[in-house]
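Have a think about this chain, tokens included, and walk me through the fold.
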Amino acid sequence: MPKEKLRLGGMALANGVLVHGPTSWACAVRTDDGELKVVARKKRVIGSRFSTPLLRGPAKLVESVVFLPELKLALPEAKLPFARRSVAGAVLGSVIVIQGVRRSRLGDAAKELVAGLLSVAPAVLSLREGEVAAYHGAEHITIGTYEHGSDRAKEHERCGTHLVGPLIATTAAANALAAKAPAHLRSAARAFAALGSLAASTEIFAWMQRHPEHIVARALAKPGHEFQHRVATDEPTRDQLDVAEAALRACLELEEPA
């Protein structure tokens, strides 16, 4: 009986690829002088230990990013896509515009929907600068080929882009309800709404993965696939694929020791 493949995640960097598994992570980058550098470590936080629906989605999100400071210390050459000044400026700009939208005369639901759409602008910018989109494609091809045992395209069914639609919808609905709370409770209501919408969207995403052929799951997955295809990924070069494959090998060496 063939050995079951691990479910892997990843992140595209401006100069490399991060791959993470159930208990480990590995990052490979191409330095400015062309050298390939790889670092791999065991995770200190495991989100899958949480089984409560309200907590397991946020916990998995925390698990996927909490080791980034450790990564930067171990591999200072790694260029995180959201650490650039242009992305930081886009985040600040979107926050200012969102506050203006929330003070406008739009209805509560419309305000939150527009705010949700504006909030993804920095992420789109981070993907379209430099080589991030190509490394994103390399990440998907490498992980998908490993998981399916055959050559895969640059779009992946578990990419976080599939979360965008459900997250915007659930956030808009939750914040519209939070806006109706008394003024002295509104901040707490928005915090709870943010946690609840993240939990709900990750549960919807998990359901989509369990029922990929369901008509609703296919409809929800379509926008994410098109976004990957047209915006979030580019076809990688052979060199970029080599970097992604080095990260995958290093992660599997920790996850599946001989």
